[in-house]
Amino acid sequence: ARQRADFQNNRYLTDSSELLPWCRESYKELWDIMVSAYGEDYFIASVTLDVPPTEWPRIDALDPPFYKDRLLHRIVNNIAVPLERFNVEDTIFDYGTYSWGDREAIRYHVAGREIYFQPRPNVTEEVVLLYVPQAVLDTLTSEIDWSAEQWAEYIVIDLAIKMRRKEQSDTTDLAMEKEAMRRRVETMAAPRDLLR
Fold first, then answer.
1. Distance CA 77, CA 88 (A)
2. 109-157 pLDDT per residue, tens
3. What are the C-alpha distances in Å from 22 to residues 25, 137, 160, 170?
4. Are residues 128 and 76 in contact, defined by beta-carbon separation less than 8 angstroms?
5. Which of 150, 99, 87 has the alpha carbon at shortest distance from 123?
6. CA nearest neighbour of 83 among 57, 52, 115
7. Which residues are paired to 125 by β-bridges?
8. Rounded CA gap, 102 and 61, in Å?
9. Contact criterion met (CB below 8 Å) for 23 and 14
10. What is the mean pLDDT of the chain?
11. Which has the higher per-residue pLDDT, 152 or 94?
12. What are the beta bridge partners of residue 152?
């Protein structure tokens, strides 16, 4: 990134104080582009959650961390039954606590750090959450777990742009490269299962 920004000898920007946080930001930006381009199903994670009658399951401690939900289902007679989402406006109704049994009309809503269900179960039930995880890059040596390592150049270009902006230098050439790289990521995300 220093080389792309022509900052090889500039030690004003230290790796740990500014460059690493910027690198994380660039990685998260690339993650958003890839999730959008490749589709949420390409980056799916899964976890089984308990749904007790007294409190809602929390999603802020999931590993990998939660980004957005994809699908929630429960197993009824060895069959995965998808649950439908409900709108926030529907929460004004108190549906009470019921036995879920073989009911198919269980609905959910993800809000903040919790998942809400209608109706509440009268005993602890299990659901399976399929979700898109957050981009996680804690340290410089962290292993990046994503399938498109060839897009690391996007991070380098974005980091070089941030360095030049800090020095109030022109970023036009790098901005054009970044846009071309973004378009390339989106173009290369064409369906991979062409046999359908």
1. 30
2. 888 888 888 888 888 888 999 998 887 665 444 444 444 567 788 888 9
3. 5, 11, 10, 18
4. no
5. 99
6. 115
7. 51
8. 29
9. no
10. 77
11. 152
12. none
